[in-house]
Amino acid sequence: MRQEIRQFLREDAAITSAWRGILEEGRRGGTSFDELAGRLDTVVADQYEQSFEQLSKVHPSPELPSAATLETLRNYAEVRRNASRALAEGLRAKDARQIREAMEQARRAGQPLQQGGSAGSAAGR
Predict the structure, then answer these.
(1) Do 36 and 91 touch, CB atoms closer than 8 A?
(2) What is the rounded distance in angstroms from the CA atom of residue 77 to the CA atom of residue 114?
(3) For residues 35 and 38, what is the distance between their CA atoms, to the nearest angstrom?
(4) pTM, 2 dp
(5) DSSP assignment of 6-68, as one string?
(6) Which of 26, 65, 88, 106 could pair with 40 as two cysteines, CB 3.0-4.6 Å apart?
């Protein structure tokens, strides 16, 4: 379980970096909303989907300290997946309200280390 948590945290850092890169590319212009949406789907949403599925395959004993961390990370991956998909849909529809709501949803997800205690210290248990 600790290995799964550490792997997720590494993958999340890469996905988050890619998400920021896609948003920055959109700010610079020259890329269509459809292209940005496609990249969000494949580089962000699909990766969070895979992470969610991977974390969902692990079934620790509820008494283990890492069990709560694992559940927190599953929820985080699900929220980030849903937010990135909503953002991609908003970009395709050119719906400013949906784009804002998706960005707010992603922001509310926070960072996995901030949720439900310290996932980083739980990964070492």
Answers:
(1) yes
(2) 13
(3) 5
(4) 0.83
(5) HHHHHHHHHHHHHHHHHHHHHHH--S-HHHHHHHIIIIIIHHHHHHHHHHHT----TTSHHHH
(6) 88
pLDDT in tens, the chain (125 residues): 788 888 999 999 999 999 999 999 999 998 999 999 999 999 999 999 999 999 888 887 878 778 888 889 999 999 999 999 999 999 999 999 999 999 999 999 987 755 444 444 334 33
- Going by C-beta distance under 8 Å and a sequence separation of 6 or more, which residues neighbour residue 66? 1, 2, 5, 60, 122, 123, 125
Q: What are the structure tokens assigned to 75, written together?
A: 């929820």
Residue 50 one-letter amino acid = Q
The number of beta carbons lying within 10 Å of the beta carbon of residue 113 is 19
